[in-house]
Specification:
The protein is α/β, with parallel strands linked by helices. Helix content is 30%, strand content 29%. The chain has a 5-stranded mixed β-barrel with strand order 5-9-8-6-10, surrounded by 4 helices.
Length: 229
């Protein structure tokens, strides 16, 4: 799923879901950029941010997609850490549209962890050092941020509209579709991972962002992630 050669990717990879968002990040923030992957239009780039080498690559939507790309990056390209930067829906009034959520751990309605044959329920968590640095970066930028867990869901259009309230009651801040698989891959392979999200819409508010805004903005989240290199 990747045409890059070994050594084409930096040790740190930023991974948005949308490959066009990866292109935007590369063109906006990085210098001396080289495209290293375009298989299935899942664009990947490597360049430099403030003199430090970094890569950015799309993950696609859902746990199977990010599961493939993150596993290959970790296991075949010597990548040490992946920072997912994406959008999410908010379950909480305090998590406003355009706020940043730093995901310390993910719940899921997926059967992803069953592949590991564990005798219980696996808790998928971020790398603490990355969480700590992300919080410091958000504070330094005076960004509205929240630290907590999100739901990584297999379904985008859920047939039963009120089930989200059960997750919200348990303190889950919002919902996205990738973080659980990323955290599991990182744990299984002895790597580092973090998910940083921008709230794009809300289950408790009518406010919503456009597809163009999600692709070309959310720059605060991107800058926070880039400072973790």
């Amino acid at each position: 799923h990747n045409q890059a050669q070994r050594g084409d990717f930096a040790e740190t990879v930023l991974m948005p879901g949308d490959p066009l968002r990866a292109k935007f990040i590369a063109e906006t923030f990085l210098e001396n950029v080289k495209e290293v992957n375009s298989v299935r239009n899942m664009l990947g780039y490597t360049g430099y941010y403030k003199g430090k080498r970094v890569s950015v690559m799309g993950s696609g939507m859902g746990m199977p997609s990010i599961g493939i790309y993150s596993y290959e990056l970790f296991s075949q390209y010597d990548v040490k850490r992946i920072i997912r930067i994406g959008s999410c829906g908010s379950y909480k009034e305090e998590c406003k549209v355009r706020d940043v959520i730093i995901d310390v751990g993910s719940s899921t309605n997926s059967s992803w962890a069953e592949q590991y044959k564990l005798p219980g329920t696996y808790t998928a968590i971020a790398t603490y050092d990355l969480v700590e640095k992300a919080v410091a970066s958000a504070k330094a930028r005076n960004v509205r941020y929240h630290v907590g867990q999100v739901l990584a869901s297999d379904a985008f259009y859920a047939p039963y509209g009120e089930e989200w309230k059960k997750w919200a009651q348990m303190g889950v801040l919002g919902v996205e579709m990738e973080s659980y698989a990323l955290y599991c891959n990182a744990a299984f392979l002895g790597k580092e991972a973090l998910t940083i999200l921008t709230v794009s819409d809300s289950f408790v508010s009518p406010e919503i962002t456009t597809a163009e805004e999600r692709q070309n903005s959310f720059t605060q989240m991107m800058e926070i992630a880039l400072e973790l290199i």
